[in-house]
Amino acid sequence: MKLKNIVFTVVLLLLMAACNSVPDTNISEIKSNPNIVPEYSGITIPFNIASLNFSIEEEGESYFLKIVAEKGTSISLSSKKGIITIPHKKWKKLLEQNKNGKIDYQVYVKREGEWKQFETFSNHILGSAIDPFLYYRLLYPGYESWTEISIVQRNLENFGEKTVVKNNVVDQNCVNCHSVNQQNPDNFMFHMRGSMGGTYFVSEGGLKKVNLKTKEMKNGAVYPRWHPSGNFVAFSSNKVFQRFHSMENKKIEVSDMNSSLVLYDVQKNEMMQIPVDISKNFMDTYPESSPDGGYLYFCRAKQMEEEYDYRDTKYNLCRAQFNPEIRTFGEPETIINAEAEGKSISFPRISPNGNSLVFTYHNYSCFPIWHKEADLYSINLKDFSTEKLDVINTAAI
After folding, report:
1. pLDDT higher than 70, residue 6
2. pLDDT in tens, 269-326
3. From 111's CA, which of 39, 347, 364, 390 has a CA 20 to 30 Å away?
């Protein structure tokens, strides 16, 4: 066969394969949404988010996706295995053109030579951008020990990653609790355990190591949260105890034997007790500063005896006024009495505008990572009304 004929044959086969992977006019409908992972249907996304790639978890010989919107050119993709990788430039352009609008996903699957179309699902697009960077700790699943652990910066606009701290360059020590003050990289700190143990602060472009545990403190400082001024960091000082289940469908239970709140003055390099529990009747943990700096929110439970049932520990949501000029705190007040409902609250986080606070609501204790009943709730800080975030909770799974 001549070279010219070979080239023609190859091109023809490629065109035939391409046509075979695109739905024709003979399409039947399936009255259900496609099973995709991750589940992105019906969500609201910022216009600067990176491509939301997913896989179509449906049986088929070929897969096809069409993303359409009111403005701009649609995006069409074919896949033999159902892996959908959306081109970055086309995706960004489509979202930019459809701010405050929506995009529709049309999913097709070829089965036994026939194309089938699932019901269309949509994403709504915000006209505002999300902060482009996310920090998190990256490690292998487990709780017994660590080998590789790092703090990573992820760019949410393209999903690129950059390592901030990696433990294989710091004598294999554990790098853990880290905190950034309102997306300000000049107010960043993290803890390290081991031979280089201490708390490290970003300071004038470099690192400053501090030992936060004074001789008056029974326990070390953990769970850091910055004051918006950048002059203070609130911590809880906890004595942590671990229990391992032998029968329940949970791996581990983490609870406090005692805990209190402390404040580090970054400028003066001073630690002080936060005087919200002079009588030592409570365990206070998980501090969270309001965006205006006027309140410190935290979780509070009654101080337990040395021997107690961890399931009896219930944490309420409290707050105290804070005057940063003279470093004084007001009397604590209970915002949500979860104990009265037989529940417990942990991990309070306030929205940047200070209008609402999201918290984890669960049956007991303060570390609900292994609690399947744990759900997220939101409280309106103007009228203190609460709302269950059903879209991302257990009822939606």
Report:
1. no
2. 999 999 999 989 999 999 999 999 999 999 999 998 877 788 889 999 999 999 999 9
3. 39
For 136, the token pair is 């998190």
Residues 14 and 105 in one domain: yes
Question: Does one domain contain both 156 and 201?
Answer: yes
184 shares its domain with 310: no
Question: Which is more confidently placed, 321 or 252?
Answer: 321
Token duo for residue 391: 């879209």
Q: DSSP 3-state assignment of 391?
A: helix
Integer Cα distance of 67 and 125 in angstroms: 13
Domain boundary at 195, 211, 227, which? 211
pTM over 0.85: no
Grouping H, G, I as helix, E, B as strand and the rest as coil, residue 97 is: helix
DSSP 228: T
Tell whether 196 and 149 lie within a shared domain: yes
Dihedral of the alpha carbons of 54, 56, 57, 63, in degrees to the nearest 10? -150
Number of domains within the chain: 3
The span from the CA of 202 to the CA of 148, in Å, is: 23
Give residue 343's domain range. Answer: 214-397
Could you identify the residue written with the tokens 């909770």? 393
Residues 248, 310, single domain; the answer is yes
DSSP 8-state assignment for residue 7: H
Least confident of 47-56, 79-88, 203-212: 203-212
Domain boundary among 87, 103, 126: 126
> Is the peptide bond preceding residue 38 cis, with omega within 30 degrees of 0?
yes
